[in-house]
């Protein structure tokens, strides 16, 4: 496989936030080209996103040994030496689930939902795939909020109506960003626990929403 193809694959893996894959590909590039600064910077980012702070620092230090004024390595190495930033990464790593686990679909318990009445593109631009979001039930609709409690969008009214009844009845849910761009936001909603009175009633029946509404 040519270096150009590997570079393209490494960039695609990073854009998809598939950090283990990005790590693997950049290591392949560096095996044949150990002074490839772009690959070293990508390697540092992959280690960073995976919570491996020391390895990320080593990658950026390697870049600076080759190019002492490299802006990417300088900026990221400074960020990785700040205690608050290191703690944030460590905490995120402890509580995060693998993407495959987050987006594992279970019949009746999960549903991918396209939000309506979206927030501005500048707000959506701050989101990443797999970000945890909050469901805030109102009278007839459910708003979706970011971890910083910024409004992101609304669950369509028919599904909102159904979920509000379940939530008021004791069901609990988690939701994550499934895909996002400047004009579309999809989330995956997962039933975490089901109230006893709904023991035989799936949150998301296959086909139409059901007569529960």
How is the secondary structure organized here?
Blueprint: H1 3-15, H2 19-32, H3 37-49, H4 53-66, H5 71-80, H6 83-95, H7 99-102, E1 110-114, H8 121-124, E2 132-137, E3 142-145, E4 151-155, H9 157-168, E5 172-181, E6 184-193
Antiparallel strand pairs: 1-6, 2-3, 2-5, 3-4, 5-6
Helix pairs in contact: 1-2, 2-3, 3-4, 3-5, 4-5
How does this structure look, described?
- The chain folds into 2 domains: 3-95, Serine Threonine Protein Phosphatase 5, Tetratricopeptide repeat, CATH 1.25.40; 99-198, Alpha-Beta Plaits.
- Helix content is 46%, strand content 19%.
- The chain has 9 helices and 6 strands.
- It has helices at residues 3-15, 19-32, 37-49, 53-66, 71-80, 83-95, 99-102, 121-124, 157-168; strands at 110-114, 132-137, 142-145, 151-155, 172-181, 184-193.
- The radius of gyration is 21 Å and the shape is elongated.
- Residues 209-213 have low confidence and may be disordered.
Q: What brief labels describe this structure?
A:
alpha+beta; Serine Threonine Protein Phosphatase 5, Tetratricopeptide repeat; 2 domains; six-stranded antiparallel beta sheet; 6 strands; disordered C terminus
Outline of the structure:
The chain is of the alpha+beta class. It has 9 helices and 6 strands.
Q: How helical, in percent, are the residues? A: 40-55%
> Care to count the β-strands?
6
CATH architectural type of the largest domain? 2-Layer Sandwich
Within the largest sheet, what's the order of strands?
1-6-5-2-3-4
Largest β-sheet summary: 6 strands, antiparallel
Number of helices: 9
Shape annotation: elongated
User: The CATH topology of the largest domain is what?
Assistant: Alpha-Beta Plaits
Low-confidence regions: 209-213
SSE topology string: HHHHHHHEHEEEHEE
How far apart, in Å, are the first and last alpha carbons? 55 Å
What is the mean pLDDT?
A: 86
- Please state the structural category: alpha+beta
Rg is: 21 Å
What percent of residues are in strands? 15-25%
Could you name the CATH class of the largest domain? Alpha Beta
């Amino acid at each position: 496989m040519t270096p150009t193809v590997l570079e393209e694959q490494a960039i695609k893996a990073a854009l998809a936030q598939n950090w283990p894959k990005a790590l693997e590909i950049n290591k392949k590039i560096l095996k044949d080209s150990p002074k490839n600064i772009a690959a070293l910077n990508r390697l540092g980012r992959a280690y960073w996103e995976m919570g491996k702070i020391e390895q990320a620092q080593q990658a950026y230090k390697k870049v600076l040994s080759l190019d002492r004024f490299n802006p990417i390595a300088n900026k990221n190495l400074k960020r990785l030496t700040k205690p608050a930033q290191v703690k944030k990464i460590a905490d995120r790593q402890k509580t995060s689930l693998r993407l495959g686990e987050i987006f594992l679909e279970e019949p009746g318990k999960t549903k991918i939902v396209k939000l309506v009445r979206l927030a501005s593109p500048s707000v959506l631009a701050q989101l990443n795939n797999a970000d945890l979001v909050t469901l805030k039930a109102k009278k007839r609709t459910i708003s979706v909020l970011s971890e910083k409690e910024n409004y992101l969008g609304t669950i369509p009214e028919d599904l909102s109506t159904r979920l509000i009844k379940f939530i008021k009845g004791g069901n609990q849910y988690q939701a994550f960003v499934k895909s996002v761009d400047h004009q579309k936001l999809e989330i995956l909603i997962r039933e975490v626990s089901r109230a006893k009175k709904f023991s035989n009633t799936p949150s998301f029946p296959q086909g139409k929403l059901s007569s529960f509404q």
